[in-house]
Write a structure and sequence with these properties.
Blueprint: H1 2-18, E1 39-42, H2 56-64, E2 69-70, E3 73-76, E4 82-84, E5 107-111, E6 114-118, H3 126-129, H4 154-168, E7 173-174, E8 177-178, H5 181-186, H6 192-201, E9 212-215, H7 219-227, E10 231-236, E11 240-241, E12 247-248, H8 257-262, H9 274-281, E13 286-289, E14 297-299, E15 302-303, E16 306-307, E17 321-323, H10 329-335, E18 339-340, H11 360-370, E19 374-377, H12 380-394, H13 396-404
Parallel strand pairs: 1-2, 1-19, 2-7, 3-8, 9-10, 10-13, 13-18
Antiparallel strand pairs: 3-4, 5-6, 11-12, 14-17, 15-16
Helix pairs in contact: 1-12, 2-4, 11-12, 12-13
The chain binds calcium ion (CA).
Residues 309, 311, 313, 315-317, 319-320 line the site of calcium ion.
Length: 417
């Protein structure tokens, strides 16, 4: 009940604030990075802290909570439809293992060189997928909506987002990710042409469409660059953060999987050197780095080779770490004209460095102040509230507009870039 009240309050706040952001905030000039409205990108929908991932209900709530874009992760069904799931394996995000009619589908596949056991989307027709219901994959989050919501297709998501844009009177975009492109190609269900066909049918296969396509691999982005003018974003992963704040690169999170297949040496981090960024710029419009590439954290105290439980709560996590100074990745990317959209921002205190005092708004503010062009959030309400605070601090028109209300007409809202 308390959560419901909180969401209601956030909804009221979101509605009030969206009605009055000045048009100047949509400025895309490179000289105004700190003054532009950073995008709130709804990670797996944007209400992922509250509802199961990648359901229309999650997208709907994410949009109401303030997301400018919602993020469908895409995998393919047996009959070639694109559906929104975080993994080809449906076991963690649906109730498939509880449905006796699908028990025989359980198997192990090699996914990016790693054995993965479960139920795979490519063994199910779309009609069968529609028999499944989404579940909350994270044990720390509310399971009470498990088993209630269907798995949407990309077409259904686009239709839904267009309707919401009309209802809300603002442009809401989509930020699809091609999941495991090499794997999908190997099983005869490549994602890229299917994605472009859906976008074309939706009238969104062009430069000005409210669409970013993202991928952790590089070859498929190069292919997409040759086929479409839709904006492309190179995701850059790592495996973990070492005690000193440097990043760890263990398989399969050490490099894009297409590099493994093609025999290219190197690590994900090579994409973020000045040379790597210039290479990315040749085929993409932005980078989506794990946030630690921009601002990392280091253990406050050590216990042997590991972080110590500095705050004495019995667990060792982000709360026992402190922020390091920002890297030069953002400045180097901006110098090349690349957008910077880090991931993933979450409210749970154990995920917040000690500097943030347990308040997720402080983490958003640190990255907005750094100059990010947007960020992926599981809690669009927190990202949105922090953005309002950021704009109140830096944009005098925003405060005037926020208080007066009347000055803020339809044309003065921040538009997704
Ligand atoms: Ca601790």
């Amino acid at each position: 009940m308390q959560r419901f009240k909180t969401i209601q309050a956030a909804l009221l706040m979101a509605g009030a604030l969206f009605a009055c952001a000045p048009a100047a905030l949509a400025d895309t000039g490179a000289q105004h990075h700190a003054r532009r409205a950073p995008l709130v990108i709804g990670h797996r929908g944007g209400a992922t802290g509250y509802l199961p991932d990648h359901t229309l209900e999650n997208y709907a709530l994410g949009i109401q909570l303030g997301a400018d874009y919602v993020e469908p992760d895409l995998v393919a069904t047996k009959d070639g439809h694109l559906i929104a799931r975080h993994e080809p394996n449906l076991i963690a995000t649906t109730n498939v293992k509880d449905l006796p009619q699908f028990a025989s589908r359980r198997r192990t596949v090699m996914l990016d060189g790693v054995p993965d056991e479960g139920f795979f989307a490519s063994d199910f027709t779309l009609a069968e997928i529609k028999q499944l219901r989404a579940v909350q994959p994270l044990a720390e989050r509310d399971p009470s909506f498990n088993g209630k919501f269907q798995i949407p297709t990309l077409e259904e998501i686009i239709e839904f987002v267009k309707r919401k844009s009309h209802e809300e009177g603002r442009t809401i975009g989509i930020y699809p990710e091609t999941k495991h492109p090499t794997y999908h190609q190997a099983i005869g269900l490549p994602l890229e042409d299917r994605l472009l066909a859906v976008l074309t049918r939706a009238g969104w296969n062009h430069r000005d469409a409210p669409v970013f396509i993202q991928s952790f691999e590089t070859a498929n982005l190069r292919y997409l660059h040759s086929k479409t003018s839709v904006r492309l974003v190179q995701l850059v992963d790592a495996d973990d953060v070492n005690p000193d704040g440097s990043l760890a690169f263990n398989k399969p999170f050490d490099k894009p999987y297409d590099w493994v297949v093609s025999g290219r040496a190197g690590l994900f981090s090579d994409l973020l050197t000045p040379q790597g960024l210039a290479e990315v710029r040749s085929y993409a419009d932005g980078i989506g780095p794990w946030k630690y590439y921009l601002i990392s954290t280091a253990c406050k105290l050590m216990n042997g080779a590991a972080c110590a439980d500095t705050n004495g709560d019995g667990a060792t996590n982000e709360m026992d770490r402190a922020l390091l100074p920002p890297t030069d990745v953002l400045a180097n990317a901006h110098a090349l004209g690349l957008l910077v959209h880090p991931y993933t921002f979450r409210n749970e205190p154990r995920r917040l460095a000690s500097d943030f005092g347990g308040n997720p708004v402080n983490e958003y503010l640190a990255f907005y102040e750094l100059g990010v062009d947007g960020l992926f959030s599981d809690f669009a309400d927190s990202a949105f509230a922090a953005r309002a605070m950021f704009l109140l601090k830096h944009e005098p028109d925003y405060a005037r507009c926020l208080v007066s209300g009347r000055e803020c007409d339809q044309g003065q809202r921040p538009e997704p870039r």
